Amino acid sequence: SYGAKVHDVKKDSIMVELTATPDQINAFEDLAKPFGIIETARTGVAALQRTGA
């Protein structure tokens, strides 16, 4: 189980979000490759400033 969030499902595609370690993401990509990955994006570490605090 990778714990990916499914954001969109269409007849010929699916969009998922996965928050995990690089090794876990690599393993997920290897598992999904036979289905035809069209695009992937990795953001790395992200920090956001809180407003109004």
From TrEMBL:
Domain called Acetolactate synthase small subunit C-terminal: residue spans: 2-50
One Pfam family here: ALS_ss_C
GO cellular component entries: acetolactate synthase complex; mitochondrial nucleoid
Gene Ontology process terms (BP): branched-chain amino acid biosynthetic process
GO MF term list: enzyme regulator activity
Official protein name in the record: Acetolactate synthase small subunit C-terminal domain-containing protein
